[in-house]
Amino acid sequence: MANVVPLLQRTSRRGNKDWSGRLIIASLAGAFGSSFLYGYNLSVVNAPAVYIKRFYHESWERRYGHVIDGGTLTLLWSITVSVFSIGGLVGAIITIPVVKFLGRKHTLLINNVFAIMAALLMALCQIAGSFEMLLLGRIVMGIHAGVSLSALPIYLSEISPKEIRGALGQVTAIFICIGVFIAQVLGLPEIFGNEFCWPYLFGVIAVPSLIQVGILPFLPESPHFLLLEKNDTSGAEKAFQTFLGKDDVSHELEESEAQRNVKLESVFQLLRNRSVRWQIITVIITMACYQLCGLNAGLAVERLGRRPLLIGGFGLMVIFFTILTVSLTLQNHAYWLPYLSIFCILAIIASFCIGPGGIPFVLTGEFFQQSQKPAAFMIAGTVNWLSNFSVGLLFPFIQAGLQTFCFLVFAVVCLAGATYLFFVLPETKNKTVNEISQAFTKRNKVILEEREMSQFSSEMKSSEEQEHNFSSTLENGETKNRIF
User: Fold this and answer.
1) Relative orientation angle of helices 359-367 and 306-329, to the nearest 10 degrees
2) Residue among 177, 206, 187 at smallest CA distance from 50
3) Which of 169, 186, 260, 437 has the fewest CB neighbours in a 10 Å radius?
4) Rounded to the nearest 5 degrees, what angle is found at the Cα of 357, between the Cα atoms of 291 and 41?
5) 363 contacts: CB under 8 Å, gap ≥ 6
6) What is each CA distance from 200 to 69, 299, 375, in whole angstroms?
7) What's the Cα-to-Cα distance from 317 to each of 119, 138, 291, 356, 389, rounded to whole Å?
8) What pLDDT does residue 447 have?
């Protein structure tokens, strides 16, 4: 976290913006209590897997009087991993109406109830002797993740200057990766990854939530929400002044006000819109690969661009997944091969954080007009959680069937994703939505339609000018007398 603050400060100086440190606090507190917990819960079940299965075995035998068979245990474990995604899908679906009614900040605050409830259920499941409590806790934690991954980007995008919006959005990706890493560290046998302490791994979840609850109430609500949903112009002005660190925020208020009459497209309307067909396909494939690559970008995204980081990240993952497969297969032939396997796992995580870790969320926000973004995020979120569910449910069976070759499945997914992006994805860095749309125009086959619309707009403009001139003429007294 200490490394993120200087990077954000340097970004603000480059943009010549003297915006408040409260923007940094909002982004860090929001990410710590939201995206950090998402990354943490993706990997927290890996380290104590042996002890959780033993807990299932003992609970089953004590309750039913017989030993649980291997197939049922594998299925139960698969459900434990994948049910988190079911909750996530529910959370993603309910987010849009909730943030519209409660506001962005209050949605994040109330969402912590789910995290604290889930932490208690999972931390106490062993004492209660109930594996159902662990499963229910995973579902509830998934709802928290689904809401936070949707509400946090909305909140951050609406309180930040547009010059650093992409960089600030990457804070979410950074904290996802930090969450994955911390879960692995706390899962070491010397800390909580042992037979007696593994429930504490789930109890830790409450800490980031409590920190967020202690910080967010002292920060303003989204000025966009205050202005457009609550008609609170004064509150919106103060919120902009607080987050941007300047007194004159008239331009920001005008930009937000201009969106008041924007008519939002539904998911069905967006799917039928030919002008964004390949953007939707790209978001779906990128988001699917994001989950199917086997891991359940730093601020360099603003410097290097989205395209090279995405393609490079997936490409490196292909290489290290292949090396990992070889090292696992031959690990008994040389003493150093297990160390190579550990290095490959760390390299895969690093490659994921380079690009695939956060850029899919950035692309979803860059591809579409404001009226299309809610539907686009709904589609992206659905694909994200369904893909996550598929990996969690199927991987134990894939691992049992393919053994050390199971990681080749992820290598193929990464290779397919990198190949698609190489041929289809244009660079979106420092480009407007219209410029990005132009890059997709040929694939969407809407050149003729755009020309026709342009011609229609010109005719409408000419007609409006004639009407304006006629109205001006009517205001002349002599013409009025002549008409009468």
Assistant:
1) 150
2) 187
3) 260
4) 65
5) 282, 283, 286, 306, 428
6) 28, 32, 38
7) 32, 28, 13, 10, 21
8) 55
How far is 24 from 171, CA to CA, in rounded Å?
Answer: 10
Cβ burial, residue 471 (10 Å; 0-12/13-18/19+)? exposed
Most confident option among 200-214, 346-360, 416-430, 454-468: 200-214
pLDDT cut 90: percent of the chain above it: 30
Pull the structure tokens for residue 171.
């804070």
- The pTM (predicted TM-score) of the whole model is 0.76
Mean pLDDT (the chain, rounded): 81
Mean pLDDT throughout 375-383? 84
Is 50 exceeded by the pLDDT of residue 180?
yes
DSSP 226: H
> Contact at 8 Å (CB) between 152 and 172?
yes
Residues 6+ apart with CB under 8 A from 256: 223, 224, 227, 228, 236
Over 50: is that where the pLDDT of 465 sits? no
Q: Give tens-digit pLDDT for 20-36.
A: 788 989 999 999 999 99
Q: Which residues contact 418 (CB under 8 A, 6 or more apart)?
A: 310, 311, 314, 315, 318
**Cα distance between residue 328 and residue 345, in whole Å:** 11
Tell me, what's the pLDDT at 479? Answer: 32
Degrees to nearest 5, angle at CA 67 with 62 and 72: 110
Q: What are the two backbone dihedrals, phi and then psi, of residue 230, each rounded to the nearest 5 degrees?
A: -105, -5
At residue 18, the pLDDT reads: 45
CA distance 198 to 124: 11
Tokens of 387: 């893909």
Q: Which amino acid is located at 159 in the chain?
A: I
**How far is Cα 144 from Cα 104, in angstroms, rounded to an integer?**
14
Q: What is the DSSP string of 374-441?
A: HHHHHHHHHHHHHHHHHHHHHHHHHHHHHGGGGHHHHHHHHHHHHHHHHHHPPP-TT--HHHHHHHHH
Q: What is the DSSP letter of 274?
A: G
Phi, psi angle pair for 317, to nearest 5°: -65, -35
pLDDT at 313: 82
Quick one: which of 108, 74, 64, 330 has its CA closest to 215? 108
